[in-house]
Design brief:
The structure holds two protein chains of two kinds. Chain A is α/β, with parallel strands linked by helices. Chain A contains six helices and ten strands, in the order E-E-E-H-E-E-H-E-H-H-H-E-H-E-E-E. The longest helix of chain A is centred in the last third of the chain and has 16 residues. Chain A starts with a strand and ends with a strand. Chain B has two domains: about 200 residues, no CATH class; about 150 residues, no CATH class. Helix content of chain B is about 60%, strand content about 15%. In chain B, a hairpin with a 2-residue loop joins strand 1 and strand 2. Classes of the chains: A alpha/beta, B alpha+beta.
């Protein structure tokens, strides 16, 4: 489902290429859960951003469901992202001053979905993320764990097959991190493809099938099935 | 409507930032209000001047002695009538009467039995029953004169003190319409003979002679012929009068310019603040929208609609308030800046005149500048890779 071919990302500083990602090749099958593991600055967030189409590679390509994401023009890429990719950010990135229900609806608005249908779908997504009781709260009234579940609901609202999570437990305590992991398990059981960038050791405790891919200095070190 | 979720989100966004947007609307409305008020006042004054000029004769002939206007013999009228192309020659008496050392009125003496005199004054004294007016010694007074006399308990009549020390009682017949008050505020119109007595002129003496020349291609020739009647004669054409009226109000153009510069400076400041606000506060919001699947076009559409709503709202609010301020409340404060040619408190009512051309220009300039200050930074952020802005 996700194929990464010879992916490079570098910046030129004083004529010298500084590689963030160097020759990444990776294949993720439909319904698979992949943990991108690595220390801070190893390049996992950049890799995730390129997969999501939020950043462009210097060379190489990312293919999702047969579409070369990095080659798509803005209009198509935006639609593709809205329908096929759900993203959960480290700092949640919920819109301030907008309640959780409306925050969850945001990806559907770009898709020109009617208001009632959008609200119904958002409410379902909040139920799935187990946060529907906070639907009318704005982000500043929510705890970190609640914001994270809100972010999951928003990632799920358009029913995408691919969910990308960037350091999802970095701002959560252990209890909320475990809750997040049980949410992941639920998504995995629903057949979603999951790619999670993290350096949190809690992901070593995952009790469902997954693959761990280590990234170090922009290169893939090892990949193990667990 | 499939797109109603978009408009729902647009409303949410406007409400979410209601305090910030209310501030922008208030400042913008104030600027529009100031510009529109000045515009409405100047349009109204312009129209009143045109209205008054229409009532003026083509030429006025005066007698100048030692650089001052001196009385002229009324038999000069017959000499002027002999000039080919001239018609409707009218005797007039003009002069200033001082109530005290501060307040005065412009006495206008007219031969009401002369058809042309009436024609010239018809816009000022229309719907006046001349028969009734001429039955006694009466006068028609401007709003400013009326108010001055009223404060001194002269509600029905006034006793003028003539230069030879006698009292001349003249009844107040009616007050001139406030529609022409910009010009007629301090005027007192009375029969020619009454004016001669009040101003101390002999019966055969007048201050000027008004005349018309229907064929305007003859104006130069007639003017030359009039001047050749006597070397003391000064001939004032309608164009000269127009220039005099315009210069009376145009010197206030400097005030308009200062006001305009203040508005432009404040508007530039507002645009700069809007630009920096859009570039900083909206940066993260735009990046989030882009990250969850909004295209650059969607983001620009949202920001365009959000701000066009603010601009239209501010414009309607500002121009409506200006209309009420100028034409309903009669522009307190600003009126004294733009009027004041009269030495009596001016009671002019601004005639409602809206120059849609200039109003549209203000709207277009305001809208383009305002939207550019928002859409340029928004576009810059939207085209950046969302990862950088997050």
């Amino acid at each position: 489902m996700v194929i990464i071919e010879n992916l490079n990302k570098f910046y030129e500083i004083d004529g010298q290429k500084q590689y963030i990602l160097n020759g990444i090749n990776l294949s993720v099958q439909k319904g698979e859960c992949v943990i991108l593991k690595g220390v801070s600055g190893s390049g996992k967030t950049t890799l995730l951003s390129i997969i999501a189409g939020l950043d462009k590679p210097s060379s190489g390509k990312v293919i999702i469901d047969g579409e070369a994401v990095s080659k798509l023009p803005d209009m198509h890429l935006s639609k593709f992202r809205a329908k096929k990719i759900g993203i959960v950010f480290q700092n949640f990135n919920l819109l301030e001053g907008v309640n959780l229900l409306d925050n969850t609806m945001v990806p559907l608005i770009a898709d020109k979905i009617g208001l009632k249908e959008a609200k119904d779908k958002a409410l379902n997504a909040l139920k799935l993320a187990n946060i529907e009781h906070k639907a009318n709260k704005i982000p500043s009234e929510l705890s970190g764990g609640e914001k994270q579940r809100g972010a999951i609901a928003r990632a799920l609202v358009a029913n995408p097959n691919l969910i990308l999570c960037d350091e999802p437990t970095a701002n959560l305590d252990r209890e909320n991190s475990l809750k997040f992991i049980s949410a992941l398990k639920k998504l995995h059981s629903m057949g979603k493809t999951l790619i999670i960038a993290t350096h949190d050791p809690i992901f070593e405790e995952l009790d469902f099938k997954h693959k761990v891919v280590e990234i170090s200095q922009g290169k893939i070190g090892f990949a193990v099935d667990a | 409507m499939k797109n109603n979720s978009f408009f729902y989100f647009l409303t949410l966004n406007l409400l979410k930032e209601k305090r910030r947007y209310a501030g922008i609307v208030i400042i913008s409305s104030l600027l529009i209000f100031l510009l529109s008020s000045v515009l409405f006042i100047s349009s109204s004054i312009k129209q009143t001047l045109n209205y008054t000029l229409k009532a003026q004769p083509d030429f006025i002939v005066q007698n100048i002695k030692g650089g001052k206007v001196a009385p002229i013999n009324s038999n000069m009228v017959n000499k002027i009538l002999n000039i080919y192309g001239v018609e409707k020659v009218t005797k007039r008496v003009y002069g200033r009467y001082f109530f005290d050392d501060k307040y005065s009125t412009l006495i206008v003496g007219v031969d009401f039995l002369d058809e042309q005199s009436n024609k010239n004054l018809e816009t000022l004294i229309n719907s006046t029953d001349l028969k009734q007016f001429l039955s006694k010694e009466q006068m028609i007074i401007g709003q400013g004169v009326k108010n001055y006399l009223k404060t001194h308990y002269y509600n029905l009549e006034y006793n003028f003190l003539t230069p030879d020390g006698q009292m001349k009682n003249i009844k107040i017949f009616k007050t001139l319409s406030s529609k022409s008050a910009i010009i007629s505020n301090d005027e007192t119109i009375m029969p020619l003979k009454s004016a001669q007595k009040v101003l101390g002129l002999k019966e055969n003496k007048i201050t000027d002679i008004a005349l018309n020349v229907p064929n305007d291609s003859e104006w130069q020739t007639v003017k030359a012929k009039l001047q050749s009647l006597n070397f003391n004669i000064r001939v004032i054409s309608k164009k000269d009068m127009q220039k005099a009226y315009e210069s009376l109000f145009n010197y206030k153009g400097g005030l308009f310019l200062v006001l305009f510069l203040i508005v432009i400076a404040t508007f530039s400041l507002l645009l700069y603040l809007r630009y920096t606000l859009a570039a900083s506060l909206e940066r993260k919001e735009i990046a989030i929208l882009r990250a969850v699947g909004w295209s650059i076009k969607d983001v620009l559409k949202l920001k365009f609609l959000e701000n066009i709503f603010l601009v239209i709202f501010a414009f309607i609010l500002g121009s409506s308030l200006a209309y009420i301020f100028v034409f309903v409340l009669n522009a307190p404060l600003l009126k004294n800046i733009f009027l004041g040619g009269s030495n009596l408190t001016n009671f002019a009512k601004f005639t409602p005149v809206v120059d849609y051309g200039v109003l549209s220009t203000i709207f277009i300039i305001f809208t383009v500048a305002f939207l550019s200050s928002v859409l340029i930074p928004v576009w810059k952020i939207a085209v950046t890779e969302p990862k950088e802005a997050l």
